[in-house]
Amino acid sequence: MGSAILNSIAPEEPKVVVPEYGETADIQDKEVSMEQLCSISTYDQWTPLSVSGQLPKPRYKHGAVVIQQKMYVFGGNHNGRYLGDIQVLDFKTLSWSKLEAKSQAEPSESAGAVPFSACAGHSVIQWGNKILCLAGHTREPAESLSVKEFDPQTCTWSTLRTYGRSPSSRGGQSVTLVGDTLVVFGGEGHGRSLLNDLHILDLETMTWDEFETTGTPPSPRSEHAAACFAERYLLIFGGGSHSTCFSDLHLLDTQTMEWSRPKQQGVTPESRAGHAGVTIGEYWFITGGGNSRKGVSDTLVLNLSTYEWSVLTNLEARAPPVSEGSSLVMHTINGENFLVSFGGYSGRYSNQAYALKASLKPSVPSQQINESDTNGFSPLSVAENSSRKVIFEIEELKDEKSLRLKQELTGLENRNAELTEELHLVQDQLSIEQTRASKFENEISDIQQRLQKMDTLEKEIESLRYELDSTVSEEESSSGNELHRSRGFWRWNG
Predict the structure, then answer these.
(1) Bridge-partner residues for 311, per DSSP?
(2) What is the pLDDT of residues 198-245, one digit of tens each?
(3) Kind and range of the H or E run holding 132
(4) CATH superfamily of 3-360
(5) Could you give the dihedral angle defined by the CA atoms of residues 85, 91, 94 and 95, in that order, rounded to the nearest 10 degrees?
(6) From CA 250, how far away is CA 237, in angstroms rounded?
(7) Where are the domains of the chain?
(8) What is the gyration radius of the CA atoms in the chain, in angstroms?
């Protein structure tokens, strides 16, 4: 995506030169600090971040998580090569740095060994002040799924010991924190086999369990998105198989272990795989991904209480936040929620970071006013100020609703253009088929005419044979003795 479009999203931001990996980003006009995120004034629009430090190598299908105002990025894929590095974006300074991690020394390991193998399609989960890393595609896949723990304070890796039957190794799965458990679903295993099995790891006992479920589970898939709601419900959205992408939504009640299909409302989401999701309260934000036809350009929001979909914003199809395999995290500054997207693939590999300030705000309790604290203001003036505040809030809601309607209208217009293009393609194919059918009809008519001529020829031949037989019979009757001596050509009389 060109820089002109990105600058139109946030014209107040300084220009950023984003080079290939191995170089340093040049920042103009102001010192980079955490205030840059706070300075984003527009809600629900993706804004490129001005960053400093050595940029990470472009990648997709990596993992990312936020701990103590830092985003940790693990591994990924670049040009078919698995990465094993750890990159950190400090939200205080918006600067990149690379961590050199070591392993927690064990008798069978050297102190300098790094157990985090280069991988892609893995899952990283925050657990307290530690980071858990599970599954993923590697150059030398193991038979079973292992659980590794990274301590940001000491920059050390360790492999956790688990009990029970571990799931088979895989990549592109979802790993979701539900209470004190990790729920692993689906993914792509050995031999590109697609999975829809469910495994639960109890983080208190570190024991794996494979539960029996009722209802109809999602079909086998990978590169889907998963979320937890009310520390009880697991939601699975989208994903893909080897032949198609999905747009379905599935719900698992982890107390009854029953699968169901919630009744969805609002806009109908496009099928997608390779997307990313993050929850803020009862809202689930989905961005990125694509299907067999294109990259998906909308950022969606699902109300987890009503299962109503809405479009938060639209971007051009090749914009990095639309990329397949990008990461998405949430960071809160001064009560404002920011989504941060990094990396991905949209025709080329990206190493850019983008931020979006979500307009969903927590409810603020009404302010109580005591007569002794009015500082000379009468109750009437307070009421007038409250009325003005209500009017301003109503106007703000109208503006937000108008913006939402415009965004939905834009989405519908884009969808209409796509359907019109598909209709033209179908009409062209129909015209081709009609031409072929007309050609076949002409060939059939020609064959039928030839068959009629053949019937006529056969009748003429039969007539000639009859006449010949009659002539021969007359000759036989008139000169029988001579025919007995010479033996005829057409008949054999013995």
Answers:
(1) 300
(2) 999 999 999 999 889 999 999 999 999 999 999 999 999 999 999 999
(3) strand 130-134
(4) Kelch-type beta propeller (2.120.10.80)
(5) -40
(6) 7
(7) 3-360, 391-467
(8) 36
